[in-house]
Write a structure and sequence with these properties.
Strand order of the largest sheet: 1-2-4-3-5-6-7-8
Structural class: alpha/beta
Radius of gyration: 17 Å
Order of helices and strands: EEEHEHEHEHHHHHHHEHEHH
Number of strands: 8
Oligomer: single chain
Number of helices: 13
Distance between the termini: 29 Å
Number of domains: 1
Strand content: 15-25%
Helix content: 25-40%
CATH class: Alpha Beta
Length: 280
C-alpha cells in the first residue's frame, strides 16, 4: 500500500517485504519521516517480515490538520492513526518500533491496544511516566527546554526556518545526524505549512492529558544511546518500572539518531522478538 485514509486525512506509507513471519510497524519522530527506517527495513524484509513505515500526522502532505486545533495533534489521534494503518493493512498484530516522538506513540499504543502489539521496540524515548517522574529531579528539565520553545506561537517557525532551515539542520548535524539525512528532513520542513503541522505534536501535549501510557505488558526491548542529548539517564533507568512484560535493555555507544545511524542494531533488536528467529 502507498496510502491510507483516516477521518479524511491521507497518510503516505512505505510498505515493503512480505508478511510471511509477521509485520513490523515503524513510527518516526521529529523532524524525521518514514525514510528514517529505510536501512532498518532493508535488514528486516529478508527475514520474511513486512515493514510498514508511515509519514505520520503533520508529516504527510495530505494529513496536516489546522495546527491551531491542538486537539487534532493530541496523543489519542496519533495512536488512532497507527491503529487505522494496521486496520487498513489488514494486520491484526504487529511488532511495533518507535523512535523519538514515535517512541511515545509506541508506548501508548502498547499500553492501550496491547491486543494489536506482538512486541515493542522503543528507540531512545523513555516511558512517558518515567519521563514525568524524573523531570524535575534530573537533567531532564534542562534537556527538554526546546520543547517549551516549540509550543510558542510563530516564533519557532521563524527561528528554525531562517536561512532556508540552516539553524535546524545545524542542530541535527551537531547532535549526530548525517548531512544528507538532515538536509532531506529540512527540505520537507520547507513545504508550506509543514513545520507548523509537525510542531503541532508539541503544541498538542496539553490536549493529551488523560490519554497517556499505562504500564506495558507486551514483550519490550528498549534501545538507548548512552550519549543521547535529549533524554536523561534517570528517565531511561526508571522506564523499567513501567514494563510488566518481558523487558530487555540494549545500550549502544551512540547518540539519538538510532534508526539512521545504527540500523543493524535496531533490526537485530526487533528480530530477537520474532518467534523462531535465530539469535542475531
Amino acid at each position: 500500500m502507498e496510502t491510507f485514509v483516516r477521518d479524511g486525512l491521507s497518510f503516505d506509507v512505505r510498505d515493503t517485504g512480505r508478511p510471511d513471519r509477521g509485520t513490523v510497524l515503524c513510527l518516526h519522530g521529529f523532524p524525521q519521516e518514514a525514510s528514517a527506517y529505510d536501512a532498518v527495513a532493508a535488514r528486516l524484509t529478508p527475514h520474511g517480515l513486512r515493514v510498514l513505515a508511515p509519514d505520520q500526522r503533520g508529516y504527510s502532505p495530505g494529513a496536516r490538520p489546522d495546527p491551531g486545533d491542538r486537539a487534532s495533534y493530541a496523543m489519542r489521534e496519533l495512536v488512532g492513526d497507527a491503529v487505522a494503518l494496521l486496520d487498513a493493512a489488514g494486520v491484526e498484530r504487529a511488532h511495533v518500533v518507535g523512535h523519538d516522538w514515535g517512541g511515545a506513540v509506541a508506548w501508548v499504543l502498547a499500553g492501550r491496544h496491547r491486543d494489536r502489539v506482538s512486541s515493542l521496540t522503543v528507540l531512545s524515548t523513555p516511558h512517558p511516566k518515567a519521563f514525568q517522574a524524573v523531570y524535575w529531579r534530573s537533567s531532564q528539565v534542562v534537556r527538554s527546554t526546546y520543547m517549551a520553545f516549540f509550543t510558542l506561537p510563530h516564533l519557532p517557525e521563524r527561528a528554525l526556518l531562517a536561512g532556508g532551515g540552516r539553524p535546524l539542520e545545524h542542530a541535527m548535524r551537531r547532535s549526530g545526524l548525517p548531512r544528507d539525512q538532515a538536509a532531506r528532513y529540512v527540505a520537507r520542513l520547507q513545504e508550506p505549512g509543514a513545520l507548523s503541522a509537525m510542531l503541532g505534536w508539541y503544541r498538542g501535549i496539553a490536549a493529551s492529558r488523560g490519554f497517556g501510557a499505562g504500564r506495558t505488558r507486551v514483550p519490550t526491548t528498549y534501545v538507548v544511546g548512552r550519549h543521547d542529548p535529549f533524554f536523561a539517564h534517570a528517565a531511561m533507568s526508571r522506564t523499567r518500572d513501567f514494563v510488566l512484560g518481558d523487558y530487555r535493555v540494549v545500550e549502544l555507544d551512540a547518540g539519538h539518531w538510532l534508526p539512521e545511524r545504527h540500523p543493524a542494531e535496531v533490526a537485530a533488536a526487533v528480530l530477537r522478538r520474532v518467534p523462531g528467529e535465530p539469535s542475531v
